[in-house]
Design goal:
Layout (H helix, E strand, L loop, with lengths): L2 H22 L6 H25 L9 H7 L8 H23 L5 H24 L4 H4 L12 H4 L3
Length: 158
């Protein structure tokens, strides 16, 4: 995959995250959860725009169905806890996906963008975990791994 194709893949994943945040927002009620979600949606939209610029002709307009399907909740969201748990998992998957893609990139602009957005996804996860009262060891893993990452191969046909 070229850097432009990886950027388009990451753009689609960011757009899918925006869609999941919009879905989860229906069950968020506390001021901290609502404000965090609104801020994080703005970040994901900005990330999608930036990846889209790098993707050039490969850029996507909407989130690929496979990315949306991969990030959807497995059970109905009925409480703020459910919504925050979903969003925390989404952020972990975004971080893992960007971490995995970082090793495929060759151009400085692409590497720089992922190196800039990856820590933001991790920070989102910490905030959401804090809202869930998760223990510190769960909030801040020793290393960022690739577990839970989305891969471009199954999403390519979308």
């Amino acid at each position: 995959m070229s850097d432009a194709e990886v950027a388009a893949f990451l753009q689609g994943v960011e757009l899918a995250a925006v869609a999941v945040y919009q879905q989860a927002s229906a069950v968020l009620g506390s001021p901290a959860a609502v404000a965090s979600a609104q801020s994080f949606v703005a970040h994901h939209r900005a990330h999608a725009r930036a990846f889209g610029e790098l993707a050039g002709g490969f850029a996507v307009v909407v989130a690929p169905e496979a990315a949306l399907d991969a990030l959807q909740p497995v059970a109905p969201l009925v409480s703020e806890h459910d919504g925050l748990t979903l969003l925390s998992a989404v952020e972990a998957r975004l971080a893992a996906t960007q971490h995995a893609m970082l090793g495929r990139l060759t151009s400085t602009p692409s590497i720089a963008l992922v190196a800039t957005t990856l820590p933001v996804e991790c920070q989102h996860g910490v905030v959401l975990g804090t809202l869930l009262s998760q223990p510190l060891a769960q909030l801040v893993p020793t290393t960022q791994g690739d577990d839970g990452r989305l891969t471009p191969q199954p999403l390519a046909g979308s």
